[in-house]
Amino acid sequence: MSTEDESSAAPAGPERSSVVEPGLYVLDADGEPREEPHLAIWGQWFRDHAKECRLATDRLPTGALVTTDFLAIDLNYSRNGPPILWETCVVGGDHHGYKQRYSTEYAARSGHRHVVERIRAGTFEPYSEEGVEILRITRSYLGKEP
After folding, report:
1. What are residue 142's phi and psi, to 5 degrees?
2. Could you give the percent of the chain with pLDDT greater than 70?
3. Domain boundaries, the chain
4. DSSP letter assigned to residue 58
């Protein structure tokens, strides 16, 4: 028999999850990210708000699909500096696989617009010279050298 008063026990369910995970985020009522350490609460929020996590989507004539999303998981694994919670991805077209991550919604929206505008203009250069060389080597290895 338990010595703890059962009436004071924490309720079961998402509102009192015992699983604590660092780096999980939700958006509050004002759209600002806040850390949510309880896995069950975070999971329920994500299920309920998954569509709202998509900030922007553009399908371009080049065949590229550019999306920017709130990830709800901090990709700053070192935990030094601000959390990295948004990501722009390019799927299809000449820049397939390009990703850029951001710490603020403002930066994510600005980055998305920049990528879309530059791809449309044919002036998108997402990589440093070293990155271009790595991309060339990878494409060559895969037999996709232009």
Report:
1. -85, 0
2. 72
3. 53-141
4. E
